[in-house]
Amino acid sequence: DDKDGDNWTPCTKLGRLVQQGKIKSLEHIYLFSIPVKEYQIVEHFLGPSLSDEVMKIMPVQKQTSAGQRMRFKAFVVVGDSNGHIGLGVKACKEVAHSIQGSMILAKLNIVPVRRGYWGGKIGAPHTIPTKITGKCGSVSIRLVPAPRGAGIVAAITSKKV
Questions:
Q1: Key word Ribosomal protein present in the record (predicted)?
Q2: Are 152 and 81 within 8 A, CB to CB?
Q3: How many domains does the chain have?
Q4: Residue 16 is inside which H or E element, if any?
Q5: What is the pLDDT along the chain (161 residues), one digit of tens a residue?
């Protein structure tokens, strides 16, 4: 992994434009819905402000003719605590490889979060703008705007996000 932007040789046209300095921010990429194929692009823009959190590591098994094949699945959340967040999921034979892979996938899946106010428009935006409901499989999540200082009212794993 190259932590330095200097050692990175871009493979995509977007990567070359970022390295040349023709694209100034991640918002320009989101504005035109350009797919990010290289995680170094996200590192270039967010850099040191990017923090990661391993949410969960769980063993998964596949039944084969010779028995079970065990792998480890890692869930990693990456964000800059300023309106960008990404989730990555990867399964590998070793825990370290699955964490590394899911970290790269989380950087590729990073999305902007729209923020708003609860009540009056005083100070910086601190919550989500409207009530939001999302569903994936059997899980449904409902996000509701809250006043400043309310914190996150959710389970321990959800609070990490």
A1: yes
A2: no
A3: 2
A4: helix 13-20
A5: 545 546 889 999 999 999 999 999 999 999 999 999 999 999 999 988 999 999 999 999 999 999 999 999 999 999 998 889 999 999 999 999 999 999 999 999 999 998 888 888 888 888 888 999 999 899 898 989 988 888 888 888 777 77
Residue in the structure block whose two tokens are 């994936």: 136
For the chain, what's the residue count?
161
Domain boundary among 97, 112, 127: 112
Same-domain status, 125 and 48:
no
DSSP category for residue 83: S
DSSP structure string for 103-154: HHHHHHT-EE---B-SSS--SS--B-SS-EEEEETTEEEEE----TT----S
> Which pTM does this prediction carry?
0.83
The answer as to whether 72 is a domain residue is yes
124 residue type, one letter: A
Structural domain range at position 126: 114-161
Q: Please answer whether residues 37 and 108 qualify as being in contact, where contact means their C-beta atoms are separated by less than 8 angstroms.
A: yes
